Amino acid sequence: MTTPEALTARVSLHTRRTVGAISPLIFGGFAEHMGRCIYEGIYDPASPLADERGLRSDVMAALRETNYRIMRYPGGNFVSGYRWQDGIGPKAERPRRRALAWRSTETNQFGPHEFMDFARELGTEPMWAVNLGTGSIQDAADLVEYMNLPTGTHYSDLRAANGQREGYGVKYWCLGNEMDGPWQIGHLDAAAYADKAVEAAKLMRWTDPGIKTIACGSSNTAMDTFPSWDRTVLERAWEHIDYFSMHYYAGNPNMGEPKEQVDTDSYLASSVHFDEHVDTVAAAIRLAKAQRRSRKDVYLCWDEWNVWYRATGGDGEWAEAPHILEEVYNLEDALVVAQWLGTFLRKADVVKIACIAQIVNVIAPIMTRRDGMFRQTIFYPLTLFSRHAAGDSLDVLVDAPTHETRKFGEVPLLDVTASFDAPSGDGAVFLVNRSQGQAMQVTLNWEDVSPGSLTGAWQMSGRDPRAANSFEVPDAVTSRPIALPVLDGGKVTLLLPPLSFTVLTSRHAPA
């Protein structure tokens, strides 16, 4: 029944009205040598929870829950000063170096072989970033040779001597990181970067023709050079790249200000910005393709995305695994993350890779200490989307009430995306009620063929948008199974609490 204060909305679904195929690689992560992501995160030999390789068994189990399909490594800003040769060979002989990006000390105890062991154990596709800051195009090609080629050459034989005879077959390669940023070691302007990226890509592909390359897009939409950087790099590097990167971090930075300056309504409407960001860069891709009279396609790789605005101090003071950038996430952050994943579905025709930054401790869904860990609020929407969004993204029609926001004007209070996998018949609908105070009764209507059954329903919600999890209270904000609604002739009615994220799964007859 509709309560007096509840809003109402209607969502229309059609299993053949689609946006595009959902790439499994949009459910990716990012592991950088930064803070405690690697050391004391995924790799912690001193922990009683570590296996014989030093990998944290509890962390690995939680990462498997999310089912990451691709993992970007080793950076990030870190990669622009990284010498990959430091991380191979006997651990006792690996050099200790100052990592200038985060002013920390890098022990190199976790390097290429350790990362590949981690990726294989996790069952995820590795995505390597090469150093185009202090590194040369030859360094990049040498790394491809080391990682991928069969034995019989200098670097492939060196890999075999270090214990891995067969090539790893790394397919995805990032051509540097955030090279538009003045903070980046080896920062270049757009034309200079594009030219270096082209030459690196050529040499890397001549070394292994089977690889896919990702060029650097703008570091964020606030850059003075956005989107001209993107246009320039795409036009100059078009024929040598397969993907083009996007980076952005969302936030609600006025939380400590007087109440009248707090703009949570706009923050909870962040998907408006995410959608516009994709549309802008996708337009630059279409322009470059037209100008080159090209038949090839370049897709988007949103390989750094997350909420990040509180823990902003990145100075590690030359410590090993410094405790920096350890953001604490709350309910409203989880709702924004859910909407971000919704953007990936809405833009499934162009967004084919996405990596949340990062996976452990540093702006991450998981937090650890030596003897345990807990899941932050953002863990739950990430995991629910990864588990249930598959097949095609549906072009959903939404009729919902709107409200006025300072940043984006009139915005619907309901954010909806959906997926349908025809071969299996599995479908999923993902709904965010952005309202801070009103429940919403939503009617879902399948316009073509009604599901045979509803198979699951989960929800996360709360009265306090600032509620968060901790070691002391690890389950304050989680997703929980809810009772399945009644399916009546292709229609379902759900009552969504304010500040909530809900997932409903269904089963049609397989195609």
From TrEMBL:
It holds the Pfam family Alpha-L-AF_C. GO terms for biological process: L-arabinose metabolic process; polysaccharide catabolic process. InterPro entries: Alpha-L-AF_C, ASD1_cat, GH, Glyco_hydro_b. It catalyses: Hydrolysis of terminal non-reducing alpha-L-arabinofuranoside residues in alpha-L-arabinosides. Residues 303-500 form the Alpha-L-arabinofuranosidase C-terminal domain. Keywords: Carbohydrate metabolism, Glycosidase, Hydrolase. Its EC number is 3.2.1.55. It comes from the Bacteria. It is an enzyme of class 3 (hydrolase). SMART domains: Alpha-L-AF_C. One of its GO terms (molecular function) is alpha-L-arabinofuranosidase activity. Belongs to the glycosyl hydrolase 51 family. Homohexamer; trimer of dimers. This is non-reducing end alpha-L-arabinofuranosidase. It comes from Deinococcus aquiradiocola. The gene is abfA.
